[in-house]
Amino acid sequence: MGYRARLAAQGAAIGLVALLFILLAWSLLHRDGGSLAAAANRGERPTAPDFTLDRIDRDGKLTLSSLRGKVVVVNYWASYCYPCRAEAPFLEDVWRGDRGRDVVVLGVDWQDFRGDARRFMRRYDVSFPVVHDGPGDVGFDYGITGLPETYVIDRQGKVVEAFIGAINTDEDRARLRSAIAKAHTT
Q1: Cα 151 from Cα 120, distance rounded (Å)
Q2: Quick count: other Cβ atoms within 10 Å of Cβ 181?
Q3: Which of 68, 86, 67 is CA-nearest to residue 77?
Q4: What Cα–Cα distance (Å) separates residue 89 from each residue in 85, 92, 150?
Q5: Which of 42, 45, 81, 108 could form a disulfide with 158 if both were Cys (CB 3.0 to 4.6 A apart)?
Q6: Cα separation, 180 vs 161, whole angstroms
């Protein structure tokens, strides 16, 4: 290969890397989640995709639609996700405080190992139901763009609000409480 051809190939490779970097930066700066999250946060109330996944917290499977009639807070997380660790105690508080009012916090361990997920659950004293989406198929149905992501689903199975990123500030926590209250009224 001649000098000019090598130089042109190197220039094209650098251009491609720069384009990919620009696309990555743009997606991080404009991160509002997938289309399901964006639709919910515009007030459209899309139907939550149903799923049946193996449980991690105990034996058996759990189907999302089996929880109809309850408000469901679906939280996508993984043991390797640092922000997931920060929000786990708050979600556990929501579960313990609101489950008597027909609120279910449902953890979806996404693209993670079961053993690591169980260690995470023990470390952070997670007692709410947790299912395993190892290959990530269900997360892709939800349009997951990163971890953590949380979806508040009303009694009819409609997504009321979506949270992209950790729920770890007082403002985020108040917003989640408000979304749960809104999901109760429908």
Answers
A1: 21
A2: 12
A3: 86
A4: 8, 5, 14
A5: 45
A6: 9
- Note whether 118 and 56 are within 8 A (CB): yes
Q: What backbone phi and psi angles, to 5 degrees, belong to 159?
A: -80, 120
Tokens of 70: 């309850």
* Cβ neighbour number for residue 110 with a 10 Å cutoff: 27
Quick one: pLDDT at residue 12?
62
Per-residue pLDDT tens digits for 26-82: 343 334 457 899 999 999 999 999 999 999 999 999 999 999 999 999 999 999 999
Token pair for 47 = 């139907």
Neighbours of 80 (CB within 10 A): 14
pLDDT 10s digits, 86-98? 999 999 999 999 9
Coil, helix or strand at residue 111: coil
The residue behind tokens 């899309």 is 46
The whole-angstrom separation of Cα 106 and Cα 126 is 11
**DSSP secondary structure, 19-81, as one string:** HHHHHHHHHHHT---SHHHHHHHTT--PBPPP-EEEBSSSSSEEEGGGGTTSEEEEEEE-TT-
Whose CA is closest to 75, among 100, 94, 98, 99?
94
Distance between CA 95 and CA 103 in Å, rounded? 7
Look at the chain and count its residues. Answer: 186
